[in-house]
Description:
- By secondary structure, this protein is α+β, with helices and mostly antiparallel strands.
- Helix content is about 25%, strand content about 35%.
- The chain contains 3 helices and 11 strands, in the order H-E-E-E-E-E-H-E-E-E-E-H-E-E.
- The strands form 2 sheets. Strands 3-4-9-11-10-6-7-5-8 form a 9-stranded antiparallel sheet, with helices on one face. A two-stranded antiparallel ribbon has the order 1-2.
- Strand 6 and strand 7 form a beta hairpin.
- It starts with a helix and ends with a strand.
Amino acid sequence: MLKRIILALGVAMATGAGAETTHKGYEMPPYTVDWQDGTREIRSYGPHLLAEVKVSGSRSGAIQKGFRVLAGYIFGGNASSEKIAMTVPVAQTPEPGGETWTVSFMMPARYTTDTLPAPRSEAIRFVKAGPSRQLVERFSGIPGTDTLADRAEALRAWAKRQGHEILAGPHYYFYDAPMTLPWKRRNEVAFTIR
């Protein structure tokens, strides 16, 4: 089962660039870029629907466990055995306190909470993400826990110097399969701002 999930992730996730609503053919949350300087952007995200799970443990362990639960759901492990298209990015956000993480997949825009098949896992819940503004920094490489924490702290400090009020985050966004070459990976650290 784990091999199938890894293979499906490798097939489903790809690299690319831009601020469109697809990333190499895979749907992503809709956004527009309001400001850009190098690898940093301020984006206005539109509403979208998320499937999410809360997972305890280390950051790396939580993303793996959360991904497996959500991938199982979209690859047919739901009440109607329906396959749901993979989207990007896989998102991970720490909960206050540090040992619990929210891992989420955006659901394709054609679905609503009424039309999505019911999950078999009680851990999965659907959340309507409303419009938001996010300060985002993109980077390549293998996104280890220390790298993510360092990048988040640097972005937080920059936001403070620029006078941006942080409302939530950091959010970590992962766009590529584990076998993607490090320099071709798209990773992002983001904060929701006012």
